Write the structure tokens for this entry.
Amino acid sequence: MRYAQIREIDIANGPGIRVSLYTQGCHRHCPGCFNEETWDFKGGKPFTKKEEDALIT
């Protein structure tokens, strides 16, 4: 899996403070999409054990 961004402190995507993981790759390509840069499955960064551990702990 690849990811576009990890927001460790996110207050825009739901109530309270949370972590948001934005995954990379999309087949839908919706008209008017505001995240076209995430469409490429080869873009972004690799999601490794390091990122997984940081999110879980």
